[in-house]
Amino acid sequence: MAGHQLIDDHLADLARRLPPDAVDELADGLLETWQCHRSAGLPPAEAARAAIAEFGSPAQITAAFVRQSPGRRAARLLLMTGPLVGVCWGAGLGVSRAWTWPAPVPVAAGFGLALLIVVAALAVAATSRRSYRRTRLAALGGAGLVVLDAAALAAVLLLAPAPVWPMLPAIPASLARIGLTLHALPRVLTDR
Amino acid sequence: MKAEAQALKGHLDVLLLAALEGGPRHGYAVKEALREGSGGRFDLPTGTVYPALHRLEGAGLIAGSWSVVDGRRRRTYTLTAAGERRLHAERGTWHEFAAAVTALLEPGPWPATS
C-alpha cells in the first residue's frame, strides 16, 4: 500500500479478521482519508493516526461487519423459525405414532445427531460478535437444514404406512424453510 | 457525538440512501456526505458505514460495482429503483413525523382534555 506503515499495520490486522473484498474496500477508504489529512497539511504519521481514529479500531469495524454479515442474519432467521417448524413436526410425528414406522434406529439416531450439529452451527453463527469466520458456519447449518428437511419429507412419503394427515402442517413448513434457506444461502456462500 | 450516533441508528439506512440520491459514491464519500450534510453532527466511525452499505446492497436497495482508482480497488454504490422507492416512502413518513413532533414542541397551548 502506498500509505503509511501505521495504515498498513491497521489493514493487516483487519485482513486477519475480515473477507478480502471488505479489506480492499476499507483500504481504499482508509488511504483516501489519509490523503485528505495529508492535503490538509498533516505530517504522514499524524495523518495516519487521524485516519485510523476516524475509521475506528479493528475490533469496532469487525464487530460492525459481523452484525451485518449475511451469515449471522441468515442463522438468526433460521433459528427463529426453527421452533415453529419443530413444533409442527413434533406434533405430527407424535400423533402419527412415528416410533412405530419401520425406520432403522441408527438412521433415526443419525438424523437426531445431524439436527443437533446443524442447530449448534447456526447458534454459533447467530451469536458471533467479534469473529466473522464464525458467521460462515451459517452456510454449513443452512445446507444441513435443507438436507434434513428433505430427508424428513422423504421419510414421511416412504415410511409412513398410511396417509398421515397430522403431518400436513409440517410438510408446507419444511418446504417453506427449504425455500427460505435456498434463498439466503447464495449470499452467505458468495460473501467475500 | 455519541448521543447523535445513537439517535442516528434507526435512521442510518434512509440517510445512506439519501446520500446516494445525487449519484454514485464510494464508502468514504458517503460518510463524508453524511458528515458535511449534517454540519458535522453525524460523524460516524467510517469503518462502520461499509457494513451498513453491504446490508443495503444485500437488500437490493443499492448496487455496488468495483473499479480501479490510483491502483487500488474501489467499490462504488448506486441507488437502485427499489432504493429510490424506499427513500421516497421514508422521506414522506419522516416529514409527517417531524411535522407532528415540531407542532407539539412549539410553545403554545395544548388541546384541553375533558
From TrEMBL, chain A:
The chain crosses the membrane at residues 77-99, 105-125, 137-160. Keywords: Membrane, Transmembrane, Transmembrane helix. The keyword Transmembrane helix applies. This is Uncharacterized protein. It comes from Paractinoplanes globisporus.
Automatic annotation (TrEMBL), chain B:
InterPro entries: Metal_resp_DNA-bind_regulator, Tscrpt_reg_PadR_N, WH-like_DNA-bd_sf, WH_DNA-bd_sf. Residues 16-88 form the Transcription regulator PadR N-terminal domain. It holds the Pfam family PadR. PANTHER family: PADR-FAMILY TRANSCRIPTIONAL REGULATOR, TRANSCRIPTIONAL REGULATOR RV3488. This is PadR family transcriptional regulator. It comes from Paractinoplanes globisporus. The lineage of its organism: Bacteria, Bacillati, Actinomycetota, Actinomycetes, Micromonosporales.
